[in-house]
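Minutes, project huddle
Topic: does the predicted pose make sense with pyridoxal-5'-phosphate bound?
PN asked that the exact inputs be recorded in the minutes so nobody has to dig through chat later. Recorded below.
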Amino acid sequence: MILRKQFLQHVGQTSPSPMLVEVARAEGSFFYTPEGKRYFDLVAGVSVSNVGHGNPQVIKAVQQQAADYMHIMVYGEMIERPQVEYARRIAELLPGDIDCVYFVNSGAEAVEVALKLAKRYTGRTELISMRRAYHGSTHGAMSMMGAPEGEEWKSEFRPLLPDTRAIRFNSFDDLQYITSRTAGVLCEVVQGEAGVRLPDPEWLRALRARCTEVGAMLIFDEIQTGMGRTGAMFAATKYGVTPDIVCLAKAFGGGMPLGGVAANRTVLDHFTNNPCLGHITTFGGHPVCCAAGLAALNYLVDNNVVDSVEMKGAMFEERVSRHPRVQEIRRSGLLLAVELGTSEYLYQLMDIFKEIGIMSDWFLYCDTAFRISPPLTISPAEIEECCDLIEQALNRLK
Ligand SMILES: Cc1ncc(COP(=O)(O)O)c(C=O)c1O
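Predicted holo structure (tokens), as shared on screen:
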């Protein structure tokens, strides 16, 4: 009780009604309160904890790296093995000629870097995003929250970046707005906070073709979809479209704060000269975070975790969609939006979930659907048990 009071008094709040569940420890697909109450974690820190809480390989890598060295010097001056090895592994896995990673601290910073890079590389100023997009909360990233839906979140923070425009995700017609004035087009491959909206693969290909035609940089935001979430290591490879720039964060740090911008060396070189120091960051690519991210990636690969993601997502979909209260499920791998049709049901359900030990959430632009995005390591038996609980909760909706 005292901690709760101090939390509300001394820790900056962003929500008028925080969940207020105290965490004592976390393991695998669960976290626990100090009283020992167990919660199924269906949020996974918003697609962060892909390798499960308390992953022993990640813990070992963090402990080892913390003991060897932590922060030495601002980004890019020193040769730090965890950074180099992680960049090399990511370059191997990303499609096309992407062979270089610029490390930052977070998703929003990765987006800032990508936008600056597109402007710097093309010498143009216009930046295009999708309606109902979410790319982060800093000024530049917020400018790319698609209009008009994003207006609710950004209007009080204007003026934002000039020369931005939002087009409709999956609209072939709107591709005409991408022109020789456009520096970059920023796009989530699967729209997360819009409530899990899947791309039309043909539209993604047309988007790629249009960007190539007019010389605009295609930037994929894989911050939520990367590191196996959609059933492939990256959604770009799942949908077979190669961007010029990829933004990474969330699961990229294996549970530690880390972001990255990946592109071809010749593109990223534009931060090196005229002027040099095109983007600088003190902590970006922190060796402990890179060691954690690399250990998490190795865990995914060594244990073939990504191969089972589609099967696990389908298990959730098959079980939960049977319930009459469920109108629709939108899904890519283990990223699911369960559509209930009304926010009244949704808010009721969140209270029931909290009582029975499930952590879920809704989406920034969609408060009629709840999220299922557990650690990718969740077992089939845990999925069955979790679906039983979800069913019980749905039965209680009035
Ligand atoms: C698709 C996408 N891009 C960017 C971000 C911002 O990342 P961060 O919160 O690390 O700044 C998020 C966060 O939810 C996201 O889902």
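Observations noted during the meeting:
- Residues 80 and 154 are 38 Å apart (CA to CA).
- The chain has a mean pLDDT of 97.
No decisions taken; revisit at the next huddle.
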